[in-house]
Amino acid sequence: MTREFSDIQTREIGLQKTLSARQLSMIALGGAIGTGLFLGSKFAIGFAGPSVIVSYMIGGAIALMLMGVLAEMTVKHPTSGSFGAYAEHYLNPLSGFLVRYMYWACIVLAVGTEVTAVGEYMQLWFPGVPPWIWVVLFSAALIGVNAMNVKNFGTLEYWFSAIKVFAIIAFVIVAAWLVFFSGDGGYGVHNWTAGEGFMPNGLTGMWFAVIVSIFSYLSIEMIAVAA
Question: Which residues are CB-neighbours of 13 under 8 A, at least 6 positions away?
Fold first, then answer.
């Protein structure tokens, strides 16, 4: 049994829309640049080897199609319930309930991976400090940022995301220089087929890396939730 969407919209009225379009765009972009890319990519490379390029292209294509569909539905049915409300409307209330709480569980688990990754990162600079201390500190900071009013939260998220975007651009520039201009024979596209080849673990390894790549794109849907 489906519900009229107007009833769902009426029920979910109350949230204030204070995030600008640029903040929403940067939140979505920054959400996709995080643990899944900076830390998770090492697992993807371990699974797929050089074919990890194909894995991330497949993951990117899936994310692109997903966001295209979600964008159309968000334009047609703007509501804070987002895809949970769409499942409730087009399928049934149980589906809407399950989608909402599955997404909640996914985000909660993802936060755990984020702060765990921070503990691992900080070990590089402060090897004498136990990782759990960084996990506690950054968890408290994360809770503090999310407890702010939406306007301040949007501003912080915008600049944090901008830093990550600039970092990615810098990494790409440095990598391009190493491969094409450094003159070091240890770098280059010839490594894609060196050793055990382009797919050292076969198609299975490449598809395992697709799973990791899809995790890397987690949070791009946040723009629909925040909108």
Answer: none
151 belongs to a structural domain: yes
Range of lowest pLDDT (50-54, 76-80, 115-119): 76-80
Token pair of 166 as six digits: 């600039």
The per-residue DSSP string of 37-66 comes to HHTHHHHHHHHHGGGHHHHHHHHHHHHHHH
> Pick the residue with more confidence: 203 or 194?
203
Residue 28: give the domain boundaries.
Answer: 20-79+129-222
- Whether 97 has a pLDDT exceeding 60, the answer reads yes
What pTM, to 2 d.p., does this model score? 0.75
CA angle at residue 102 from 95 to 65, to 5 degrees? 80
Total structural domains in the chain?
1
Q: Name the residue with tokens 């201390």.
A: 133
Residue 218 belongs to a domain: yes
Alpha-carbon distances of 155 from 38, 111, 166, 192, rounded to whole Å: 23, 20, 17, 41
